[in-house]
User: Which sequence fits this backbone?
């Protein structure tokens, strides 16, 4: 079956530090990959996505590259801000096996705290 | 435009009682999903509605859980009778469409359920 593994948290950084949150996956077929973010008091929202190998998703200074050879989709940002403090979820969607669209498989989430 | 709204935000009940969670999706979104996050673990898929029909309910844990979507608008998720292991955060999400390359789910803030 499908699975997503994220690096253990929480992650605590100082403002302007470099961020990497590791994500690896196991999936049948050719999945689409996503990063969702949940800010305090809000619902999850899509941060970025990639739908095929070597695609790079990017948004708000965050980037992630779909690496089929290493089955990874690591999230990176060159200079974090206090406002980036949130919970980050890596997820995949695979149509293989007749599963329905919208059936996302999530990682366990990584709490990021950025201090001034 | 209003986002996905969920009610209640937090519910505390005794084991054996009944709880009903409600979700109002974004207007015009035919697809509605329920997910659950238990004890800080990964978010897991419960089921998917397309309008009023259940497209995929493979993630429903057991027959104590009943989901409905009357008239293809709002949805309810009833847990009866509740058990301790049902505690967690229940997320609702909606989408206008879900294509292989375009899908994005819009999530509510979640309903936290505590079973004592």
Assistant:
């Amino acid at each position: 079956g499908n699975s997503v593994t994220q690096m253990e948290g929480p992650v605590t950084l100082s403002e302007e530090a470099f961020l990497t949150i590791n994500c690896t996956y196991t999936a049948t077929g050719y999945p689409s990959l996503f990063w969702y973010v949940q800010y305090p008091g809000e619902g999850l929202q899509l941060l970025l996505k990639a739908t095929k190998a070597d695609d790079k998703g990017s948004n708000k200074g965050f980037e992630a590259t779909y690496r089929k050879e290493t089955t990874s989709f690591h999230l990176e940002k060159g200079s974090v801000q206090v406002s980036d403090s949130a919970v980050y979820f890596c997820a995949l969607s695979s149509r293989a096996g007749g599963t329905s669209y919208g059936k996302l498989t999530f990682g366990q989430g990584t709490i990021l705290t950025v201090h001034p | 435009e209003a986002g996905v709204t969920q009610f209640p935000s937090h519910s505390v009940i005794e084991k054996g009682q009944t709880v009903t969670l409600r979700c109002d999706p974004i207007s015009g979104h035919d697809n509605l999903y329920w997910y659950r996050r238990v004890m800080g673990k990964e978010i897991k898929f419960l089921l998917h509605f397309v309008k009023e029909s259940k497209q995929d309910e493979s993630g429903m844990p057991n027959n104590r859980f009943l989901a409905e979507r009357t008239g293809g608008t709002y949805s309810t998720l009833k847990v009866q009778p509740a058990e301790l292991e049902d505690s967690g955060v229940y997320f609702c999400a909606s989408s206008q469409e879900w294509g292989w390359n375009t899908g994005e789910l819009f999530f509510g803030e979640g309903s936290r359920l505590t079973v004592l």
